[in-house]
Amino acid sequence: MTDKEKEAYPSYVTTGGYLKFYPSLKAAYIEAWEKADKEDRDKTFKLPNFDPIVFEEIFGFNPCDCVEEKREHEAIEQDIITINGVEYIRKENYNAKTQ
Hints:
Low-confidence stretches: 68-77
Order of helices and strands: HHHHHHEE
Number of helices: 6
Distance between the termini: 56 Å
Structural class: alpha+beta
Mean pLDDT: 76
Strand content: 5-15%
Radius of gyration: 19 Å
Shape: elongated
């Protein structure tokens, strides 16, 4: 908690904190992402099948554009293929089992 929040909510001592209000879930997600340390953000980028497009669809922001400091992380090379109006992403090093 910031000092300003402690002044506004003196009962934080008794309750161990306070219920913070966010104008939207997107604002809460962005704040949580910005407060996460570099190690935790890197773990997110290294998740199997991590896709920044899907991340943005779920959380409402692109993690690469959100953080104040631009960080380098491995770019995912993708080819987008459209079949019958549906877009599919081909990823390098994809190991598909043949049947």
